[in-house]
Amino acid sequence: MTQGDTGITGADEAYEGKAWNVVGHTYTPKLHTENAMIWHAVVPDGTFVPPHIHPTQDEWIVMLDGNLEIEFGDDLHKAGPGDTIRMPRGIAHGIFNRSGATATCVFGVAPSRKLFALFGKLDGVTDPAELVRISAEHEVDFLPPPSEG
Questions:
Q1: Amino acid 7: pLDDT
Q2: Under DSSP, is residue 9 helix (H, G, I), strand (E, B) or coil?
Q3: How many Å apart are CA 44 and CA 89, to the nearest integer?
Q4: What does the pLDDT look like over 123-142, one tens digit per residue?
Q5: How confident is the model at residue 147 (pLDDT cuts 50, 70, 90)?
Q6: Using CA atoms, how far apart are residues 113 and 118, in angstroms rounded to an integer?
Q7: How distant is the alpha carbon of residue 4 from its chain centre?
Q8: Does residue 21 form part of some domain?
Q9: Residue 128: domain span
Q10: What is the number of domains present in the chain?
Q11: Where is the Cupin type-1 domain (predicted)?
């Protein structure tokens, strides 16, 4: 962000006019700088982001409406309106909406690294293998699915 980027991204606006469909969620960027990225997310019931790691970014979510479950390995945390979820770099986490209703929240990462470009590449991608491949090229590493046993 430079001095010329001061101002407001309105509630019904997106930074640079962009919005993406990523894993069934609608992500609307609100701020993007080298140091941080913030986006509004609409997370429908039954959708999720599989467990993954950001090796170069801290991530957080501020819940607005609805409920999400966050898995850190075997630990399950439930978050509702007003809660802040902290996901430090290097810690595997999965984000799940199993609530029966849509959730809305604001995500952030710092530093922004390659995430803005990643969401542009993932917009509308539905093939899990392609999602994993593209994400790895942008510093987000998905964990392999659990083995059946």
A1: 87
A2: coil
A3: 25
A4: 999 999 999 999 999 999 99
A5: low
A6: 10
A7: 27
A8: no
A9: 27-137
A10: 1
A11: 6-132
Tell me whether residue 145 is in a domain. Answer: no
pTM above 0.70, yes or no: yes
At residue 105, the pLDDT reads 98
Contact 77, 85 (CB under 8 A): yes
Is 35 a domain residue?
Answer: yes
Give the per-residue pLDDT at 3: 46
Cα–Cα dist 14/116, whole Å: 13
Q: What is the dihedral of CA 72, 78, 83, 88, to 10 degrees?
A: 0
**14 within domain boundaries:** no
Long-range contacts, stretch 80-88, CB < 8 angstroms, 24+ apart: 84/60, 85/60, 85/61, 86/58, 86/60, 87/54, 87/58, 87/59, 87/60, 87/61, 88/58
Q: What is the CATH number of the domain that holds 33?
A: 2.60.120.10
Residue 17, phi then psi, degrees to nearest 5 = 70, 20
Q: What are phi and psi of 96, to 5 degrees?
A: -130, 135
